[in-house]
Amino acid sequence: MPSKASFYAFAASVFFHSASAAYSISESYTGSNFFDGFQIDNSPELNGGFVHYVDYNTATSSGLVQQDGDSVRLALDSTTPNASGGRNSVRATSKKRYNEGLYLFDVQHNPGGICGSFPSLWTVGPSWPADGEIDIIEQINLYSTNQYTLHTGKNAGCYNSDGLPQSGHNIGLNCNQGLDNGFGCAIGDDRQSSFGAGFNANGGGVQAMEWTANYIHFWFFPRNEIPSDISSGAPKPRTWGAPTADFGLNCSISSNFHDQQIIFMLDLCGDWVKNDWASSCQAKTGYGSCTEYAAAKGGDFKDAYWEINSVKIYTGYDETCC
Question: Which residue has the higher pLDDT, 321 or 237?
Fold first, then answer.
């Protein structure tokens, strides 16, 4: 019969091994199998935008969805000469809902940096805003750097902490949807390679989100700076240095963010865009409103598309952490 000491030593080794197990791949979607994990969602647009989200058959027959072994492209209509009622677009949503883990989004091209554009890669819980929203890639009009934002319920009491180690800069610390006009707690990436034309000229990159019970971290790696452990399929976030964005909230992350659905969205002229139009795009386009411009100038949106190389979801823990 083994001694108590040997038993406790064995138990401790098992605990340490399980607590430090490396992240392991759970799901992987590329160009060839993207729609095993995602679906085209044609439910109504809810952001005050100027698009009609179409179904899968319409999207594929009109070329708004293009798929091959390497990537999948999601676009909006740029050929209709006068789309007075709004342009057709696509929205891809995950078939499953997700919780804590490591999420790697390899994106070759994003639709941003164009007047009127409102693209976003985001997640949302079943009941918004109580179950949380995480904006991973999001920006509007001619802005050229990415913004990460978290939204929580109106009375959740969630605030981000100031002074956390990150390469980005805090824009807002209040995550509660009922305050500050629902802006959310936000962090900006200062690099031109993080969004729009600069992102696309560099061949995109990998957007990483590590979501745990204690924090939500984001890193963006431009195409020529992707760590070798990501490329080899054995990601170790603790070796990546300070995150681009560090959300170390003062509230329970597990209670306020759960059962999230992943969404790739391509909107035009939503409320955020309209509020910014006069200062950023009116003079440049010569149109007094975003909807007038988007209806008349379809060709200006020919580069407004997502090209997604892969979405990879890992579970477990970073073995270099503890």
Answer: 237
Handedness of CA 188, 217, 27, 127 (dihedral sign): negative
Backbone phi and psi for residue 46, each to the nearest 5 degrees, phi listed first: -125, 10
Taking a C-beta distance cutoff of 8 angstroms, is the pair 94, 103 a contact? no
Cβ-based neighbour number of residue 204 at 10 Å: 23
Considering the entire predicted model, what is its pTM? 0.92
Give mean pLDDT, residues 264-268.
Answer: 98
Amino acid, single-letter form, for residue 180: D
Identify the active-site residue in 138, 292, 307, 319.
Answer: 138
> What confidence tens digit (pLDDT) does each residue in 39-52 have?
999 999 988 999 99
Instruction: Please indicate whether residue 138 is annotated as part of the active site.
Output: yes
Tokens linked to 68 = 């091959």
Mean pLDDT of 175-198: 93
Q: How far apart, in whole angstroms, are the C-alpha atoms of residue 12 and residue 37?
A: 38
pLDDT, position 178: 80
45, 100, 133, 210: the active-site residue: 133
What is d(CA 210, CA 247) in angstroms, rounded to the nearest whole number? 10
β pairing state of 185-188 and 261-268: unpaired
Cα 294 to Cα 292: distance, rounded to the nearest angstrom? 6
Element (H, E) at 294: helix 290-296
CA distances from 9 to 13, 17, 19, 209 (A): 6, 12, 15, 35
Is 27 an active-site residue?
no
Measured distance CA(83)–CA(269) in Å, rounded: 13
Burial 218-242 (b: 16+ CB within 10 A, else e): bbbbbeeeebebbeeeebbbeebee
- Do 14 and 311 meet the contact criterion of CB atoms below 8 Å apart? no
